[in-house]
């Protein structure tokens, strides 16, 4: 039998996962921890922005915490060391521009809007991404199920806007930051994951975390200075509660960086999607409990409709005739210095052994968190032959 080429993913498929979302107690524990951290981070960031509207300062602290933890994990030998090298830094510098803009806009949206408004915007992103991927990235049109799902999402979003008190008072100006967030994350979701990915050859999930957060710090600091945030920082009244919330947000962000990857490796893609919807519901429930800065009852119902549509949505496969075009485009991009080889565009093996691009949950990252997305990280149970040898990545 002829062996698969070094750069191919055509290795022996791993044993199929159990039908249940949580096949053992360990998986259930990671799912629970991931859900709690995911729901809590968005709420903590909202409370922080209510008490101290300092998006750049808060983000920079969170980036720094993730950077320090990543370095400590590597220095202590708990993970392989990923050094900063030019061929990895260059594409990450491009990606981080979108990343930082998304994080900053999400914080500003939390400052001026309800948590539910941001969740609605995030849930509707697939409606734009599916179109962008069809025209520019070689994917097929959405299936009937996905069209219905997008229709449900849009209906829920329209109903939410119609019941939103802020929209009634200020019109579309109430959604300025939400609209910016929606626009940037749509482009990032469609193209950002093609700039950075497994072809860069990180030894563990801590490598992407280190790169993303470290490179993001100077850019976020620059945004803070440009927006005159240091003046606001001097006027903040610091209290033990505020300091505790800042520390908690950093801890939750680092926890999500690890738990998001770990949970994704233990459960199926469908289960992970459902878990993401459950996280949003948990966030909304917590927001209803802790204070009165939330949507109306009709707004909550509209949000639930939107989340139902999000849970139904399925990403379209690559078009049958798109692979040659993708490879040609990838070759041009690689020659231009973008480092986007064709084997990455083709995707990563899923639990059934077929090729698919891994779509991880995103609300933890875009709504104030900062863990990496879109990477195919081989789990401990997977055959190491499925990893791309280092010499084939250059």
Automatic annotation (TrEMBL):
Its main location: membrane. Keywords: Membrane, Transmembrane, Transmembrane helix. The keyword Transmembrane applies. Residues 29-313 form the Sugar phosphate transporter domain. GO terms for cellular component: membrane. It is found in: Membrane. It is a multi-pass membrane protein. It comes from the Eukaryota. This is Sugar phosphate transporter domain-containing protein. It comes from Prymnesium parvum.
């Amino acid at each position: 039998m002829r062996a698969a080429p070094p750069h191919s993913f055509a290795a022996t498929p791993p044993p199929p996962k159990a039908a249940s979302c949580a096949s053992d107690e360990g998986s259930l524990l990671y799912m629970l921890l991931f859900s709690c951290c995911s729901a809590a981070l968005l709420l903590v960031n909202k409370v922080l922005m209510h008490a101290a509207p300092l998006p750049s300062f808060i983000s920079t602290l969170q980036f720094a915490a993730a950077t320090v933890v990543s370095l400590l994990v590597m220095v202590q030998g708990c993970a392989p060391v990923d050094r900063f090298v030019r061929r990895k830094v260059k594409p990450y510098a491009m990606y981080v521009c979108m990343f930082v803009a998304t994080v900053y806009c999400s914080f500003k949206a939390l400052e001026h809007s309800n948590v539910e408004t941001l969740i609605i915007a995030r849930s509707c992103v697939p409606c734009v991404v599916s179109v962008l991927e069809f025209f520019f990235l070689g994917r097929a049109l959405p299936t009937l199920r996905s069209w219905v799902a997008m229709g449900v999402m849009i209906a829920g979003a329209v109903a939410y806007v119609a019941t939103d008190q802020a929209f009634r008072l200020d019109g579309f100006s109430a959604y300025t930051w939400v609209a910016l967030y929606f626009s940037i994350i749509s482009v990032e979701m469609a193209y950002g994951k093609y700039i950075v990915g497994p072809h860069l050859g990180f030894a563990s999930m801590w490598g992407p975390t280190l790169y993303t957060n470290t490179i993001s710090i100077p850019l976020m600091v620059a945004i803070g200075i440009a927006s005159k945030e240091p003046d606001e920082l001097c006027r903040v009244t610091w209290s033990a509660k505020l300091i505790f919330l800042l520390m908690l947000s950093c801890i939750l962000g680092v926890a999500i960086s690890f738990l998001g990857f770990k949970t994704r490796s233990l459960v199926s893609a469908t289960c992970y999607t459902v878990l993401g919807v459950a996280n949003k519901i948990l966030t909304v429930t917590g927001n209803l409990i802790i204070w009165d800065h939330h949507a109306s009852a009709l707004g909550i119902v509209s949000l639930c409709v939107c989340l139902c549509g999000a849970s139904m949505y399925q990403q379209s496969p690559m078009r049958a005739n798109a692979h040659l075009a993708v490879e040609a485009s990838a070759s041009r991009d690689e020659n231009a210095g973008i480092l986007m080889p064709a084997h990455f565009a083709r995707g990563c093996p899923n639990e059934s052994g077929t090729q698919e691009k891994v779509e991880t949950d995103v609300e933890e990252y875009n709504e104030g968190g900062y863990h990496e997305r879109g990477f195919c990280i081989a789990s401990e149970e997977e055959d190491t032959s499925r990893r791309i040898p280092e010499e084939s990545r250059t």
